[in-house]
Amino acid sequence: DGGITQSPKYLFRKEGQNVTLSCEQNLNHDAMYWYRQDPGQGLRLIYYSQIVNDFQKGDIAEGYSVSREKKESFPLTVTSAQKNPTAFYLCASSIEHTNTEAFFGQGTRLTVV
Amino acid sequence: AQTVTQSQPEMSVQEAETVTLSCTYDTSESNYYLFWYKQPPSRQMILVIRQEAYKQQNATENRFSVNFQKAAKSFSLKISDSQLGDTAMYFCAFMNYGNKLVFGAGTILRVKS
Asked: Three-state SS for A41?
């Protein structure tokens, strides 16, 4: 079955450590996205990528980094520079330049202690 | 930069009645896409309805319809014959032709029996 997979579902890390969240899709989508969702809040765009080896900052990119070495994969690293990393992170993908819906993963809940 | 504003943090409606959720957006672009997504307690993002900005006709999907006013930059969602399963967080979203997909802060909708 085609879809978008985020792992792990829950992640705990100590303050000051970098952590990488995984996002893989087998939908052959060109565009991929990372969002952060805080309790009761909307989705805020961290980074997005339209094509392999290219990505753009979203509205809250500070303290995060991404790579897009393969079409299927768009990992997100939460660095120690991110002041308040505890949140729910959603990855999504879509076909480029269409109004086709973005497909979302199940999300990763990151807790920094 | 594109922004999406949802001015109603919470709404409630009686089962079988009609409710309208508001959304406004800001962009200098003339071509773009608009979406409404639903996020139930499971946190899985589900597409409700989509609209292309170049189409004047309002999109309709069963009990869901939109009122798209391009000049006013308004994109409201009407839910008819509300059902208990419609209880969720609803997000309005904007995508430009560069595939940047941004969301509003969301509206919590509670359907009461």
From this structure: coil
Q: Answer for the pair A85, A110: CB distance below 8 angstroms, yes or no.
A: yes
Contact between residue B110 and residue B21 where contact means Cβ atoms under 8 Å apart: no
Scored b (16 or more CB within 10 A) or e, B8-33 reads beebebeeeeebebbbbbebeeeebb
- Cα distances (Å, whole numbers) of residue B33 to A3, A15, A55, A68, B17: 22, 39, 20, 25, 28
* Chain B residue nearest residue A56, CA to CA: B100
Per-residue model confidence as pLDDT tens digits over A69-85: 999 999 999 998 888 99
Of B1, B102, B105, which has the smallest distance from its Cβ to A41's Cβ? B105
Which residues, other chains included, contact B70 with Cβ-Cβ below 8 Å and sequence gap of 6+? B53, B56
Bridge partner list, A34: A47, A91
Whether the predicted pLDDT of B97 surpasses 70: yes
What is chain A's Cα-based Rg? 13
By percentage, how much of chain A surpasses pLDDT 70? 96
Output the DSSP codes for A50-104.
EETTEEEE-TT-TTEEE--SBTTB--EEE-TT-S---EEEEEEEE-TTS-PPPEE
Q: For an interface test with A, which of B33, B101, B107, B110 has the most A Cβ atoms less than 10 Å from its Cβ?
A: B101
Of B6, B43, B100, nearest to A48 by CB-CB distance is B100
